[in-house]
Amino acid sequence: MGTSLPSPSPLPCEEVRVVSLLPSLTEIVAQLGKGEQLVGITHECDFPPDVVMGKKVVTESFVDPKASQREINDRVVESLAQNNSLYALREGAFRDARPTHVLTQSLCDVCAVNFEQVKSKCSRLLADDPYKLLSVEPQTLRDVRDSIQVVGASLDCSRAAIDEALARFDEGRASVRERVHRRLDRRRPKVALLEWFDPLFTGGHWIHEMVEDAGGSYGLTRPGERSAVMTRSDLAAYDPDVIVLAPCGFDLDRCERDAKKILYDPEGEHFEWWSGLRAVRESEVYACDGNQYFSRPSPRLVEGIEILAEVLHGVATTPRGEEGARWRRLELPPR
To answer: Residue limits of the Fe/B12 periplasmic-binding domain (predicted)?
Structure first.
């Protein structure tokens, strides 16, 4: 689950200085009470706002976030085929941060700086300073929970701080399951969660468990299985009761805009087949913030489970459990 590579020399007993190369790891560091020790973050780290504000940004992206989903997908496919990274370390900023701990991952080159690049640049740029390089690769909700413990141990957090963070995660999941259980007087709705629309990608890894926790059924991937491209006919044959749109890396506004442009435009290439889906005809399609609540393997996946419970069963798990705050129902345009 977590791989800690040996430091070139022993770490002295001095101030911990953390560089996080993944937004989810930044959130975990903050949950463990080590936000003040963060000295470097990625260009995508945006939570918690008070923790990331003013922190040195040590990465950059070669992907235009304003490009269309099709253009972004083509760029990703091309880069991976050529064994190129989509992101890079800003060497000067990374070196100046003088980290004692570098947190990263090797699971997905689409999500962060390539692990081999990180390892190589740490070796070169931090050659004169002792450091610890920790790679964390969660694939299930249990792995996400374990990553809290692994990061906490690596940063020498107190047992109390680690246990408190674990308890928040466990109690959050349990609370949603309990509330949903009271509403499960009928079969679990069949859910399709799409993490990309053009082309279609299923939600993978921890999504299956999130849907199950929220009182739905999910047959597009098994727990821990990667997301995958699916065809229109695959989605039609699956015939979901509910479709959740949660594009990787995009917020709620971008999700809604893309859905209306790609899927709900009567003049668009996708409208005919999309409007034929039962869930679409019955207005059981929901736009969500995939970036904050579904894509990141952080403790806030619990909020993603809450959102799913809200749209599947009307379970308002928090005061924010209202349409518009964290999700929006999408409907076909009037004829």
So the answer is: 137-290
**CATH number for region 185-330:** 3.40.50.1980
H/E element holding 242?
A: strand 242-245
The answer to whether 117 touches 36, Cβ cutoff 8 Å, is no
Q: Does domain 2-166 fall into CATH 2.60.40.3410?
A: no
- What Å distances lie between residue 42 and 9, 24, 46, 252, CA to CA? 26, 11, 9, 21
Q: Please give the angle made by the CA atoms of 275, 268 and 252, to the nearest 5 degrees.
A: 75
Residue 203 in this model has a pLDDT that exceeds 70: yes
* Closest C-alpha among 7, 24, 314 to residue 182: 314
Contacts of 172 (CB under 8 A, 6+ apart): 299, 302, 303, 305, 306
For residue 28 the two structure tokens come to: 């975990």
SS (H, E, C) 171-239: HHHHHHHHHHHCCCCCCCCEEEEEEEECCEEECCCCHHHHHHHCCCECCCCCCCCCCCECCHHHHHHHC
Per-residue pLDDT at 86? 86
Helix axes 141-154, 159-181, angle to 10 degrees: 160
Q: Which two tokens stand for residue 42?
A: 């990625």
Question: Mapping DSSP to helix (H, G, I), strand (E, B) and coil, where does residue 271 land?
Answer: helix
Asked whether the whole model's pTM tops 0.70, one would answer yes
Please state, in angstroms and as integers, the Cα–Cα distance from residue 40 to each residue in 19, 54, 189, following that order. Answer: 4, 10, 43
Instruction: Inform me whether the pLDDT recorded for 9 exceeds 60.
Output: no
Q: Give the pair of three-digit tokens for residue 123.
A: 């070796």
Pick the closest to residue 62 from 43, 46, 45, 47 (CA basis). Answer: 43
**Common-topology check for domains 2-166 and 185-330:** yes
Q: Where are the domains of the chain?
A: 2-166, 185-330
Q: Can you tell me which residue has the tokens 């064994």? A: 83
**Residue 323 pLDDT exceeds 90:** no
Closest CA to 283 of 320, 334, 217: 334
**189 to 177, 184, 241: CA distances (angstroms):** 15, 10, 6
